Protein backbone atom coordinates (compact mmCIF):
# COMPACT_ATOMS: atom_id res chain seq x y z
CA UNK A 1 0.00 0.00 0.00
CA UNK A 2 1.19 3.52 -0.72
CA UNK A 3 2.22 5.92 1.96
CA UNK A 4 -0.19 8.76 2.63
CA UNK A 5 1.86 10.83 5.06
CA UNK A 6 5.60 11.11 5.20
CA UNK A 7 7.97 13.23 7.23
CA UNK A 8 11.50 13.75 5.94
CA UNK A 9 14.16 15.19 8.24
CA UNK A 10 11.49 17.12 10.12
CA UNK A 11 12.56 19.66 12.74
CA UNK A 12 10.76 22.33 14.77
CA UNK A 13 11.59 24.79 17.54
CA UNK A 14 9.59 27.55 19.20
CA UNK A 15 12.79 29.58 19.44
CA UNK A 16 15.68 29.78 17.04
CA UNK A 17 18.32 27.03 17.33
CA UNK A 18 16.39 25.42 20.15
CA UNK A 19 14.76 22.44 18.50
CA UNK A 20 11.93 20.55 20.19
CA UNK A 21 12.54 17.72 17.74
CA UNK A 22 14.89 17.32 14.82
CA UNK A 23 15.77 14.93 12.01
CA UNK A 24 12.58 12.88 12.25
CA UNK A 25 11.77 10.48 9.42
CA UNK A 26 8.77 8.20 9.14
CA UNK A 27 5.94 7.33 6.82
CA UNK A 28 2.37 6.20 7.35
CA UNK A 29 0.43 3.92 5.03
CA UNK A 30 -3.28 4.05 4.26
CA UNK A 31 -5.32 2.37 6.98
CA UNK A 32 -2.34 2.09 9.30
CA UNK A 33 -2.39 3.04 12.99
CA UNK A 34 0.84 4.44 14.36
CA UNK A 35 1.37 4.85 18.07
CA UNK A 36 3.75 7.54 19.29
CA UNK A 37 5.38 6.63 22.61
CA UNK A 38 7.77 8.63 24.71
CA UNK A 39 8.21 10.40 28.05
CA UNK A 40 6.57 13.71 28.99
CA UNK A 41 7.97 16.77 27.27
CA UNK A 42 9.69 14.89 24.51
CA UNK A 43 7.87 16.65 21.68
CA UNK A 44 5.03 14.24 20.83
CA UNK A 45 2.30 16.90 20.92
CA UNK A 46 4.46 19.37 19.01
CA UNK A 47 5.19 16.74 16.36
CA UNK A 48 1.47 16.06 15.96
CA UNK A 49 0.71 19.78 15.62
CA UNK A 50 3.35 20.05 12.91
CA UNK A 51 1.72 17.21 10.98
CA UNK A 52 -1.39 19.34 10.43
CA UNK A 53 0.57 22.60 10.02
CA UNK A 54 -0.88 24.20 13.14
CA UNK A 55 2.84 24.74 13.65
CA UNK A 56 4.88 24.98 10.43
CA UNK A 57 8.13 22.95 10.31
CA UNK A 58 11.42 24.81 10.56
CA UNK A 59 13.38 22.06 8.83
CA UNK A 60 12.59 19.22 6.47
CA UNK A 61 9.35 18.44 4.68
CA UNK A 62 6.04 16.66 5.13
CA UNK A 63 4.53 14.94 2.12
CA UNK A 64 0.78 14.45 2.32
CA UNK A 65 -0.81 12.34 -0.42
CA UNK A 66 2.08 13.11 -2.79
CA UNK A 67 1.97 16.86 -2.16
CA UNK A 68 4.35 18.95 -0.12
CA UNK A 69 2.51 20.30 2.92
CA UNK A 70 4.19 23.71 2.99
CA UNK A 71 2.47 24.47 -0.36
CA UNK A 72 -1.01 23.57 0.91
CA UNK A 73 -3.43 25.99 2.55
CA UNK A 74 -4.82 25.37 6.06
CA UNK A 75 -8.16 24.60 4.45
CA UNK A 76 -6.75 22.03 2.00
CA UNK A 77 -4.87 20.32 4.82
CA UNK A 78 -7.94 20.27 7.10
CA UNK A 79 -9.96 18.48 4.41
CA UNK A 80 -7.46 15.59 4.53
CA UNK A 81 -6.04 15.63 8.03
CA UNK A 82 -8.10 15.87 11.21
CA UNK A 83 -6.70 16.70 14.63
CA UNK A 84 -8.06 15.99 18.09
CA UNK A 85 -6.35 18.07 20.78
CA UNK A 86 -5.37 16.70 24.15
CA UNK A 87 -7.54 19.12 26.06
CA UNK A 88 -10.45 21.18 24.94
CA UNK A 89 -11.92 24.26 26.51
CA UNK A 90 -14.81 26.28 25.19
CA UNK A 91 -15.67 29.68 26.65
CA UNK A 92 -19.21 29.37 25.30
CA UNK A 93 -21.53 26.41 26.03
CA UNK A 94 -22.28 25.43 22.43
CA UNK A 95 -24.56 22.43 22.12
CA UNK A 96 -22.77 19.20 21.21
CA UNK A 97 -24.43 19.31 17.80
CA UNK A 98 -23.23 22.87 17.14
CA UNK A 99 -19.72 21.94 18.26
CA UNK A 100 -19.56 18.87 16.02
CA UNK A 101 -20.82 20.71 12.93
CA UNK A 102 -17.79 23.00 13.21
CA UNK A 103 -15.84 20.11 11.68
CA UNK A 104 -17.47 21.12 8.37
CA UNK A 105 -15.54 24.41 8.34
CA UNK A 106 -12.90 23.37 5.75
CA UNK A 107 -15.67 22.31 3.36
CA UNK A 108 -17.70 25.52 3.63
CA UNK A 109 -17.02 28.94 2.10
CA UNK A 110 -16.13 32.02 4.14
CA UNK A 111 -19.71 33.31 4.10
CA UNK A 112 -21.54 29.98 4.43
CA UNK A 113 -23.41 28.49 7.34
CA UNK A 114 -23.86 24.71 7.67
CA UNK A 115 -26.82 23.25 5.80
CA UNK A 116 -29.10 20.21 6.16
CA UNK A 117 -26.48 17.96 4.59
CA UNK A 118 -23.87 19.08 7.07
CA UNK A 119 -26.20 18.31 9.97
CA UNK A 120 -26.94 14.90 8.43
CA UNK A 121 -23.20 14.20 8.51
CA UNK A 122 -23.17 15.33 12.14
CA UNK A 123 -25.90 12.81 12.97
CA UNK A 124 -23.96 10.09 11.15
CA UNK A 125 -20.73 10.69 13.02
CA UNK A 126 -22.57 10.95 16.34
CA UNK A 127 -24.01 7.51 15.62
CA UNK A 128 -20.61 6.07 14.65
CA UNK A 129 -19.15 7.25 17.93
CA UNK A 130 -22.28 6.39 19.91
CA UNK A 131 -23.13 9.81 21.34
CA UNK A 132 -26.42 10.65 19.60
CA UNK A 133 -28.06 11.06 23.01
CA UNK A 134 -25.72 13.97 23.83
CA UNK A 135 -26.72 16.10 20.81
CA UNK A 136 -28.49 18.88 22.72
CA UNK A 137 -26.26 18.96 25.79
CA UNK A 138 -24.00 21.98 26.35
CA UNK A 139 -20.43 20.96 25.50
CA UNK A 140 -19.16 22.52 28.72
CA UNK A 141 -21.09 20.09 30.91
CA UNK A 142 -19.70 16.81 29.59
CA UNK A 143 -17.54 14.28 31.41
CA UNK A 144 -13.96 13.78 30.23
CA UNK A 145 -14.90 10.62 28.33
CA UNK A 146 -17.93 12.17 26.66
CA UNK A 147 -15.92 15.21 25.66
CA UNK A 148 -13.27 13.06 23.99
CA UNK A 149 -15.95 11.21 22.02
CA UNK A 150 -17.55 14.50 20.95
CA UNK A 151 -14.19 15.71 19.63
CA UNK A 152 -13.76 12.45 17.71
CA UNK A 153 -17.25 12.85 16.24
CA UNK A 154 -16.28 16.37 15.22
CA UNK A 155 -13.10 15.22 13.50
CA UNK A 156 -15.07 12.52 11.65
CA UNK A 157 -17.50 15.18 10.41
CA UNK A 158 -14.44 16.82 8.89
CA UNK A 159 -14.16 13.66 6.68
CA UNK A 160 -10.38 13.46 6.71
CA UNK A 161 -8.19 10.60 5.48
CA UNK A 162 -5.80 10.86 8.41
CA UNK A 163 -6.61 11.28 12.09
CA UNK A 164 -4.10 12.76 14.50
CA UNK A 165 -5.05 12.01 18.09
CA UNK A 166 -3.04 13.65 20.85
CA UNK A 167 -3.24 11.29 23.84
CA UNK A 168 -6.82 10.21 23.14
CA UNK A 169 -6.94 8.10 26.30
CA UNK A 170 -5.52 10.56 28.82
CA UNK A 171 -7.73 11.26 31.86
CA UNK A 172 -10.11 8.44 30.93
CA UNK A 173 -11.09 5.56 33.20
CA UNK A 174 -10.12 2.00 32.27
CA UNK A 175 -13.42 1.17 30.55
CA UNK A 176 -13.45 4.37 28.51
CA UNK A 177 -9.81 3.87 27.52
CA UNK A 178 -10.55 0.47 26.06
CA UNK A 179 -13.80 1.59 24.41
CA UNK A 180 -11.85 4.41 22.78
CA UNK A 181 -9.12 2.05 21.52
CA UNK A 182 -11.84 -0.21 20.13
CA UNK A 183 -13.31 2.80 18.32
CA UNK A 184 -9.86 3.63 16.93
CA UNK A 185 -9.50 0.05 15.65
CA UNK A 186 -12.92 0.24 13.99
CA UNK A 187 -12.12 3.56 12.35
CA UNK A 188 -8.85 2.15 11.01
CA UNK A 189 -10.81 -0.74 9.46
CA UNK A 190 -12.85 1.78 7.45
CA UNK A 191 -9.60 2.92 5.80
CA UNK A 192 -8.63 5.88 7.98
CA UNK A 193 -4.96 6.27 8.78
CA UNK A 194 -4.32 7.21 12.38
CA UNK A 195 -1.45 8.62 14.39
CA UNK A 196 -1.98 8.69 18.14
CA UNK A 197 0.28 9.50 21.02
CA UNK A 198 0.06 7.54 24.25
CA UNK A 199 1.74 6.95 27.58
CA UNK A 200 0.88 3.25 27.63
CA UNK A 201 3.01 0.78 25.64
CA UNK A 202 0.07 -1.63 25.98
CA UNK A 203 -1.99 0.62 23.70
CA UNK A 204 0.53 -0.02 20.96
CA UNK A 205 -0.10 -3.78 21.28
CA UNK A 206 -3.87 -3.27 21.33
CA UNK A 207 -4.36 -1.05 18.32
CA UNK A 208 -1.27 -0.24 16.31
CA UNK A 209 0.58 -1.67 13.33
CA UNK A 210 3.46 0.72 13.81
CA UNK A 211 5.21 2.29 16.78
CA UNK A 212 7.45 5.32 16.95
CA UNK A 213 9.52 5.69 20.10
CA UNK A 214 10.52 9.23 20.83
CA UNK A 215 13.05 10.57 23.29
CA UNK A 216 14.47 14.06 23.65
CA UNK A 217 13.22 15.13 20.26
CA UNK A 218 14.57 12.14 18.36
CA UNK A 219 13.09 8.90 17.10
CA UNK A 220 14.87 6.08 18.91
CA UNK A 221 12.79 3.30 17.43
CA UNK A 222 10.38 2.80 14.54
CA UNK A 223 8.71 -0.39 13.41
CA UNK A 224 6.08 -2.97 14.27
CA UNK A 225 5.00 -3.15 17.95
CA UNK A 226 6.55 -6.63 18.28
CA UNK A 227 10.00 -5.47 17.19
CA UNK A 228 10.01 -2.00 18.69
CA UNK A 229 8.28 -2.30 22.03
CA UNK A 230 10.82 -4.51 23.79
CA UNK A 231 12.33 -4.49 27.25
CA UNK A 232 15.57 -2.87 26.17
CA UNK A 233 13.96 -0.03 24.20
CA UNK A 234 11.50 0.81 26.96
CA UNK A 235 14.30 0.95 29.51
CA UNK A 236 16.17 3.37 27.26
CA UNK A 237 13.14 5.57 26.68
CA UNK A 238 11.52 5.65 30.12
CA UNK A 239 14.54 4.85 32.33
CA UNK A 240 12.81 2.03 34.24
CA UNK A 241 12.90 -1.76 34.04
CA UNK A 242 9.99 -3.36 32.23
CA UNK A 243 8.97 -6.95 31.53
CA UNK A 244 7.10 -7.82 28.34
CA UNK A 245 5.01 -11.00 28.59
CA UNK A 246 2.94 -12.76 25.99
CA UNK A 247 -0.46 -13.77 27.37
CA UNK A 248 -2.24 -16.72 25.76
CA UNK A 249 -5.53 -17.96 27.29
CA UNK A 250 -7.73 -16.43 24.59
CA UNK A 251 -6.15 -12.99 24.83
CA UNK A 252 -3.16 -13.50 22.55
CA UNK A 253 -1.49 -10.23 23.24
CA UNK A 254 1.72 -8.99 24.71
CA UNK A 255 1.52 -6.93 27.85
CA UNK A 256 3.96 -4.64 29.49
CA UNK A 257 4.69 -4.87 33.22
CA UNK A 258 6.79 -2.17 34.86
CA UNK A 259 9.06 -3.42 37.65
CA UNK A 260 8.86 -1.31 40.79
CA UNK B 1 -32.52 25.72 12.32
CA UNK B 2 -32.91 23.15 9.54
CA UNK B 3 -31.91 20.19 11.71
CA UNK B 4 -34.92 20.64 13.94
CA UNK B 5 -37.26 19.49 11.19
CA UNK B 6 -37.05 15.89 12.30
CA UNK B 7 -38.29 16.75 15.76
CA UNK B 8 -41.89 17.01 16.82
CA UNK B 9 -43.43 20.10 15.33
CA UNK B 10 -44.92 21.54 18.49
CA UNK B 11 -42.26 20.70 21.02
CA UNK B 12 -41.85 23.23 23.80
CA UNK B 13 -38.51 24.25 22.38
CA UNK B 14 -40.01 25.08 19.00
CA UNK B 15 -42.78 27.15 20.51
CA UNK B 16 -40.21 29.03 22.55
CA UNK B 17 -37.97 29.65 19.56
CA UNK B 18 -40.96 30.75 17.45
CA UNK B 19 -42.13 33.23 20.05
CA UNK B 20 -38.58 34.56 20.38
CA UNK B 21 -38.47 35.05 16.60
CA UNK B 22 -41.80 36.85 16.59
CA UNK B 23 -40.70 39.07 19.46
CA UNK B 24 -37.50 40.00 17.64
CA UNK B 25 -39.42 40.81 14.48
CA UNK B 26 -42.04 43.02 16.13
CA UNK B 27 -39.81 44.73 18.71
CA UNK B 28 -37.86 47.13 16.46
CA UNK B 29 -40.94 48.10 14.44
CA UNK B 30 -43.00 48.96 17.50
CA UNK B 31 -40.16 50.94 19.07
CA UNK B 32 -39.51 52.76 15.82
CA UNK B 33 -43.11 53.93 15.44
CA UNK B 34 -43.26 54.79 19.13
CA UNK B 35 -40.12 56.91 18.74
CA UNK B 36 -41.76 58.94 15.99
CA UNK B 37 -44.53 60.32 18.17
CA UNK B 38 -42.81 60.96 21.46
CA UNK B 39 -41.15 64.31 21.92
CA UNK B 40 -41.89 67.87 22.86
CA UNK B 41 -43.96 68.57 19.76
CA UNK B 42 -47.05 66.41 20.20
CA UNK B 43 -48.20 64.50 17.13
CA UNK B 44 -50.84 61.80 17.44
CA UNK B 45 -49.81 58.22 16.57
CA UNK B 46 -52.29 57.95 13.69
CA UNK B 47 -50.98 61.16 12.17
CA UNK B 48 -47.41 59.87 12.52
CA UNK B 49 -48.25 56.73 10.56
CA UNK B 50 -50.06 58.82 7.94
CA UNK B 51 -47.09 61.18 7.55
CA UNK B 52 -44.68 58.26 7.20
CA UNK B 53 -46.89 56.48 4.67
CA UNK B 54 -47.44 59.66 2.66
CA UNK B 55 -43.91 59.31 1.32
CA UNK B 56 -44.78 55.95 -0.21
CA UNK B 57 -48.44 56.31 -1.19
CA UNK B 58 -50.48 59.45 -1.74
CA UNK B 59 -52.40 60.61 1.34
CA UNK B 60 -54.25 63.92 1.43
CA UNK B 61 -52.10 66.09 3.74
CA UNK B 62 -54.37 67.15 6.61
CA UNK B 63 -51.45 68.04 8.85
CA UNK B 64 -49.35 71.14 9.38
CA UNK B 65 -46.08 71.21 7.36
CA UNK B 66 -44.15 71.68 10.61
CA UNK B 67 -45.31 68.24 11.73
CA UNK B 68 -43.95 66.70 8.57
CA UNK B 69 -40.68 68.51 9.07
CA UNK B 70 -40.43 67.39 12.72
CA UNK B 71 -40.91 63.78 11.74
CA UNK B 72 -39.00 63.82 8.50
CA UNK B 73 -36.03 66.07 9.28
CA UNK B 74 -35.61 65.64 13.02
CA UNK B 75 -37.06 62.45 14.48
CA UNK B 76 -36.53 60.08 11.57
CA UNK B 77 -32.80 60.71 10.94
CA UNK B 78 -32.19 60.62 14.67
CA UNK B 79 -34.03 57.31 15.10
CA UNK B 80 -32.26 55.75 12.12
CA UNK B 81 -28.90 56.90 13.49
CA UNK B 82 -29.62 55.44 16.93
CA UNK B 83 -30.64 52.14 15.37
CA UNK B 84 -27.57 52.00 13.13
CA UNK B 85 -25.18 52.77 15.98
CA UNK B 86 -26.93 50.38 18.38
CA UNK B 87 -26.92 47.57 15.82
CA UNK B 88 -23.31 48.19 14.79
CA UNK B 89 -21.92 48.37 18.31
CA UNK B 90 -23.79 45.23 19.39
CA UNK B 91 -22.68 43.19 16.39
CA UNK B 92 -19.10 44.36 16.92
CA UNK B 93 -19.33 43.48 20.61
CA UNK B 94 -20.70 39.99 19.95
CA UNK B 95 -18.00 39.34 17.32
CA UNK B 96 -15.22 40.60 19.60
CA UNK B 97 -16.49 38.46 22.48
CA UNK B 98 -16.30 35.44 20.18
CA UNK B 99 -12.88 36.37 18.79
CA UNK B 100 -11.38 36.98 22.23
CA UNK B 101 -13.16 33.95 23.73
CA UNK B 102 -14.29 36.26 26.49
CA UNK B 103 -17.77 37.63 27.19
CA UNK B 104 -16.39 40.63 29.08
CA UNK B 105 -14.95 42.23 25.98
CA UNK B 106 -16.46 45.34 24.39
CA UNK B 107 -15.83 46.85 20.94
CA UNK B 108 -13.64 49.49 22.58
CA UNK B 109 -11.02 46.99 23.74
CA UNK B 110 -8.50 47.75 20.99
CA UNK B 111 -8.60 51.49 21.64
CA UNK B 112 -10.87 52.61 18.81
CA UNK B 113 -13.02 54.91 20.95
CA UNK B 114 -10.05 56.43 22.73
CA UNK B 115 -8.43 57.14 19.36
CA UNK B 116 -11.60 58.55 17.84
CA UNK B 117 -12.22 60.67 20.94
CA UNK B 118 -8.74 62.13 20.65
CA UNK B 119 -9.22 62.79 16.93
CA UNK B 120 -12.48 64.59 17.64
CA UNK B 121 -11.06 66.62 20.55
CA UNK B 122 -8.05 67.70 18.50
CA UNK B 123 -10.23 68.83 15.61
CA UNK B 124 -12.63 70.65 17.95
CA UNK B 125 -9.69 72.51 19.44
CA UNK B 126 -8.00 73.47 16.18
CA UNK B 127 -10.60 73.43 13.40
CA UNK B 128 -14.10 73.55 14.90
CA UNK B 129 -16.01 72.48 11.84
CA UNK B 130 -18.34 69.52 12.29
CA UNK B 131 -17.40 67.64 9.14
CA UNK B 132 -13.68 67.99 9.90
CA UNK B 133 -14.28 66.86 13.49
CA UNK B 134 -15.98 63.74 12.18
CA UNK B 135 -13.25 62.96 9.67
CA UNK B 136 -10.61 63.49 12.33
CA UNK B 137 -12.50 61.21 14.76
CA UNK B 138 -12.76 58.46 12.18
CA UNK B 139 -9.07 58.66 11.32
CA UNK B 140 -8.17 58.73 15.03
CA UNK B 141 -10.13 55.52 15.67
CA UNK B 142 -8.62 53.65 12.74
CA UNK B 143 -5.09 54.84 13.51
CA UNK B 144 -5.42 53.75 17.15
CA UNK B 145 -6.44 50.20 16.20
CA UNK B 146 -3.76 50.01 13.49
CA UNK B 147 -1.28 51.02 16.18
CA UNK B 148 -2.59 48.32 18.53
CA UNK B 149 -2.38 45.74 15.75
CA UNK B 150 1.15 46.79 14.87
CA UNK B 151 2.59 46.56 18.38
CA UNK B 152 0.96 43.18 19.04
CA UNK B 153 2.41 41.60 15.93
CA UNK B 154 5.01 38.93 16.64
CA UNK B 155 6.56 37.41 13.52
CA UNK B 156 3.52 36.66 11.39
CA UNK B 157 1.00 36.22 14.18
CA UNK B 158 -0.95 38.52 16.47
CA UNK B 159 -1.65 36.59 19.67
CA UNK B 160 -4.93 37.54 21.35
CA UNK B 161 -3.35 38.34 24.70
CA UNK B 162 -0.89 40.70 23.00
CA UNK B 163 -3.79 42.38 21.21
CA UNK B 164 -5.65 42.99 24.49
CA UNK B 165 -2.57 44.32 26.25
CA UNK B 166 -1.61 46.53 23.31
CA UNK B 167 -5.20 47.79 23.22
CA UNK B 168 -4.90 48.85 26.86
CA UNK B 169 -1.66 50.67 26.11
CA UNK B 170 -3.15 52.45 23.09
CA UNK B 171 -6.33 53.43 24.92
CA UNK B 172 -4.34 54.80 27.89
CA UNK B 173 -2.11 56.80 25.58
CA UNK B 174 -4.94 58.36 23.59
CA UNK B 175 -6.99 59.09 26.73
CA UNK B 176 -4.01 60.94 28.16
CA UNK B 177 -3.67 62.96 24.96
CA UNK B 178 -7.38 63.79 25.10
CA UNK B 179 -6.95 64.97 28.71
CA UNK B 180 -4.07 67.12 27.55
CA UNK B 181 -6.33 68.77 24.98
CA UNK B 182 -9.01 69.36 27.62
CA UNK B 183 -6.36 70.91 29.84
CA UNK B 184 -5.16 73.38 27.24
CA UNK B 185 -8.62 74.10 25.76
CA UNK B 186 -10.30 77.44 26.41
CA UNK B 187 -12.57 76.67 29.41
CA UNK B 188 -15.37 78.98 28.27
CA UNK B 189 -16.27 77.58 24.88
CA UNK B 190 -13.79 74.94 23.62
CA UNK B 191 -13.71 72.79 26.75
CA UNK B 192 -17.50 72.35 27.03
CA UNK B 193 -17.66 71.48 23.32
CA UNK B 194 -15.05 68.74 23.77
CA UNK B 195 -16.65 67.39 26.95
CA UNK B 196 -20.17 67.28 25.50
CA UNK B 197 -18.98 65.75 22.27
CA UNK B 198 -17.23 62.94 24.16
CA UNK B 199 -20.29 62.20 26.29
CA UNK B 200 -22.24 61.29 23.21
CA UNK B 201 -25.50 62.51 21.74
CA UNK B 202 -27.65 62.05 18.69
CA UNK B 203 -29.01 65.60 18.70
CA UNK B 204 -26.69 66.85 15.96
CA UNK B 205 -27.38 63.98 13.56
CA UNK B 206 -28.40 65.15 10.10
CA UNK B 207 -29.49 63.28 7.03
CA UNK B 208 -26.06 63.97 5.57
CA UNK B 209 -24.45 62.05 8.44
CA UNK B 210 -26.60 59.06 7.62
CA UNK B 211 -25.57 59.21 3.98
CA UNK B 212 -21.86 59.50 4.71
CA UNK B 213 -21.45 57.42 7.87
CA UNK B 214 -24.34 54.96 7.54
CA UNK B 215 -22.67 52.91 4.76
CA UNK B 216 -19.60 52.24 6.95
CA UNK B 217 -21.80 50.82 9.70
CA UNK B 218 -24.00 48.88 7.28
CA UNK B 219 -21.11 47.34 5.32
CA UNK B 220 -19.13 46.48 8.48
CA UNK B 221 -22.15 44.85 10.09
CA UNK B 222 -23.00 42.97 6.89
CA UNK B 223 -19.50 41.48 6.78
CA UNK B 224 -19.76 40.35 10.41
CA UNK B 225 -23.20 38.87 9.78
CA UNK B 226 -21.87 36.98 6.76
CA UNK B 227 -18.88 35.44 8.52
CA UNK B 228 -20.83 34.82 11.75
CA UNK B 229 -20.65 31.04 11.76
CA UNK B 230 -16.85 31.05 11.45
CA UNK B 231 -16.69 33.05 14.68
CA UNK B 232 -17.95 29.89 16.43
CA UNK B 233 -14.93 27.96 15.20
CA UNK B 234 -12.51 30.78 15.99
CA UNK B 235 -13.89 31.01 19.55
CA UNK B 236 -12.49 27.53 20.29
CA UNK B 237 -8.99 28.94 20.16
CA UNK B 238 -6.58 29.53 17.32
CA UNK B 239 -4.94 26.10 17.28
CA UNK B 240 -8.23 24.22 17.10
CA UNK B 241 -9.58 26.66 14.53
CA UNK B 242 -6.51 26.17 12.34
CA UNK B 243 -6.87 22.40 12.57
CA UNK B 244 -10.36 22.87 11.14
CA UNK B 245 -9.01 24.80 8.18
CA UNK B 246 -9.66 28.34 9.39
CA UNK B 247 -7.14 30.93 8.24
CA UNK B 248 -7.08 32.50 11.69
CA UNK B 249 -4.96 35.55 10.87
CA UNK B 250 -7.20 36.44 7.95
CA UNK B 251 -10.42 35.94 9.92
CA UNK B 252 -9.07 37.95 12.86
CA UNK B 253 -8.14 40.77 10.51
CA UNK B 254 -11.61 40.79 8.92
CA UNK B 255 -13.34 40.91 12.33
CA UNK B 256 -11.05 43.58 13.76
CA UNK B 257 -11.24 45.84 10.72
CA UNK B 258 -15.05 45.52 10.40
CA UNK B 259 -15.62 46.25 14.08
CA UNK B 260 -13.16 49.15 13.98
CA UNK B 261 -14.86 50.79 11.01
CA UNK B 262 -18.27 50.35 12.64
CA UNK B 263 -17.18 51.76 15.99
CA UNK B 264 -15.21 54.65 14.49
CA UNK B 265 -18.19 55.64 12.30
CA UNK B 266 -20.46 55.37 15.36
CA UNK B 267 -18.25 57.71 17.37
CA UNK B 268 -18.32 60.18 14.45
CA UNK B 269 -22.10 60.11 14.46
CA UNK B 270 -22.85 60.25 18.15
CA UNK B 271 -19.72 60.44 20.30
CA UNK B 272 -18.58 57.71 22.65
CA UNK B 273 -21.39 55.40 23.73
CA UNK B 274 -20.31 52.63 26.09
CA UNK B 275 -21.98 49.52 27.49
CA UNK B 276 -24.09 48.71 24.43
CA UNK B 277 -21.60 46.40 22.73
CA UNK B 278 -20.84 44.70 26.05
CA UNK B 279 -24.36 44.12 27.41
CA UNK B 280 -26.52 43.43 24.36
CA UNK B 281 -24.76 40.18 23.30
CA UNK B 282 -25.45 38.81 26.80
CA UNK B 283 -29.16 39.48 26.40
CA UNK B 284 -28.92 37.79 22.99
CA UNK B 285 -27.35 34.68 24.55
CA UNK B 286 -30.17 34.45 27.07
CA UNK B 287 -32.69 34.50 24.21
CA UNK B 288 -31.05 32.23 21.60
CA UNK B 289 -27.95 30.64 23.16
CA UNK B 290 -24.27 31.05 22.33
CA UNK B 291 -24.29 29.96 18.65
CA UNK B 292 -23.03 33.00 16.68
CA UNK B 293 -25.08 31.90 13.68
CA UNK B 294 -28.12 33.16 15.61
CA UNK B 295 -26.44 35.43 18.15
CA UNK B 296 -25.02 37.94 15.65
CA UNK B 297 -28.32 38.72 13.86
CA UNK B 298 -30.17 38.77 17.20
CA UNK B 299 -27.62 41.18 18.70
CA UNK B 300 -28.15 43.41 15.68
CA UNK B 301 -31.90 43.64 16.26
CA UNK B 302 -31.66 43.97 20.04
CA UNK B 303 -28.93 46.61 19.81
CA UNK B 304 -30.90 48.72 17.34
CA UNK B 305 -34.02 48.54 19.50
CA UNK B 306 -32.20 49.18 22.76
CA UNK B 307 -30.28 52.27 21.69
CA UNK B 308 -33.42 53.72 20.11
CA UNK B 309 -35.33 53.40 23.41
CA UNK B 310 -32.44 54.89 25.36
CA UNK B 311 -32.26 57.79 22.91
CA UNK B 312 -36.00 58.36 23.33
CA UNK B 313 -35.39 58.62 27.07
CA UNK B 314 -32.38 60.87 26.50
CA UNK B 315 -34.36 63.41 24.51
CA UNK B 316 -37.68 63.35 26.34
CA UNK B 317 -37.19 62.39 29.99
CA UNK B 318 -36.34 65.86 31.26
CA UNK B 319 -36.59 69.31 29.74
CA UNK B 320 -32.99 69.30 28.55
CA UNK B 321 -31.28 66.52 26.65
CA UNK B 322 -29.32 63.95 28.70
CA UNK B 323 -26.07 62.84 27.01
CA UNK B 324 -26.76 59.29 25.82
CA UNK B 325 -23.33 57.98 26.86
CA UNK B 326 -24.30 58.74 30.47
CA UNK B 327 -27.64 56.96 30.15
CA UNK B 328 -26.28 53.79 28.53
CA UNK B 329 -23.82 53.49 31.42
CA UNK B 330 -26.44 54.22 34.09
CA UNK B 331 -28.78 51.61 32.59
CA UNK B 332 -26.13 49.21 31.31
CA UNK B 333 -23.87 48.85 34.34
CA UNK B 334 -26.50 47.76 36.91
CA UNK B 335 -28.21 45.59 34.31
CA UNK B 336 -24.91 43.89 33.58
CA UNK B 337 -24.32 43.33 37.28
CA UNK B 338 -27.78 41.74 37.45
CA UNK B 339 -27.01 39.51 34.47
CA UNK B 340 -23.70 38.19 35.73
CA UNK B 341 -25.18 37.42 39.14
CA UNK B 342 -28.49 36.03 38.00
CA UNK B 343 -27.67 33.80 35.08
CA UNK B 344 -24.77 31.79 33.83
CA UNK B 345 -26.46 31.35 30.51
CA UNK B 346 -24.29 31.73 27.48
CA UNK B 347 -20.85 31.54 28.96
CA UNK B 348 -18.52 30.08 31.55
CA UNK B 349 -16.56 31.78 34.25
How would you characterize this protein structure?
The complex is a heterodimer of chains A (260) and B (349). By secondary structure, chain A is an alpha/beta fold. Chain A has one domain (3-258): Rossmann fold (3-Layer(aba) Sandwich). In chain A, 32% of the residues lie in helices and 27% in strands. Chain A has nine helices and twelve strands. In chain A, the strands form three sheets. In chain A, strands 6-7-8-3-9-10 form a six-stranded mixed sheet, sandwiched between helices. Chain A has a four-stranded antiparallel sheet with strand order 2-1-4-5, with helices on one face. In chain A, strands 11-12 form a two-stranded antiparallel ribbon. Chain B is an all-alpha fold. Chain B has a single domain, classed as Orthogonal Bundle (ABC transporter involved in vitamin B12 uptake, BtuC). Chain B is globular, with a radius of gyration of 21 Å. The relative contact order of chain B is 0.15. Chain A binds chain B through residues 49, 52-54, 73-79, 82-83, 85, 88-95, 97-98, 102-103, 105-106, 108, 110-116, 119, 122-123, 140, 158, and chain B through 2-3, 98, 101-103, 226-230, 232-233, 235-237, 239-247, 285, 289-291, 293, 346-348.
Amino acid sequence: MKSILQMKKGGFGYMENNFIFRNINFSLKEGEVMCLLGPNGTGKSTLIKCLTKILPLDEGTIIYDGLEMSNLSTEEIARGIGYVPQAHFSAFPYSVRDLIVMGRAPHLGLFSVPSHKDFDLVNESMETVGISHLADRPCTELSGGEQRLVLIARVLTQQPKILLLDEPTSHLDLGNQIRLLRLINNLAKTGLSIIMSSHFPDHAFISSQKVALMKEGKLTGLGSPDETVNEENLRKVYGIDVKIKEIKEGINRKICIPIV
Amino acid sequence: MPYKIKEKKFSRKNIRSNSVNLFLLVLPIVIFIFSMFIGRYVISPILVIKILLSKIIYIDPTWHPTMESVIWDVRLPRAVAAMLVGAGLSVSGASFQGLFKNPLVSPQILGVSAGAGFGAALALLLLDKLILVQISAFIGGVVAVAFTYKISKIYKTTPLLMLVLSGMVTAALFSALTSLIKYVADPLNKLPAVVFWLMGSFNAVSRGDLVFLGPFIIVGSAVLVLIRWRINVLSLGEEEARSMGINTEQLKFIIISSATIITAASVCMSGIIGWVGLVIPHVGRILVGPDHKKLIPVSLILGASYLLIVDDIARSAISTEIPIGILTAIIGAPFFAYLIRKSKSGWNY
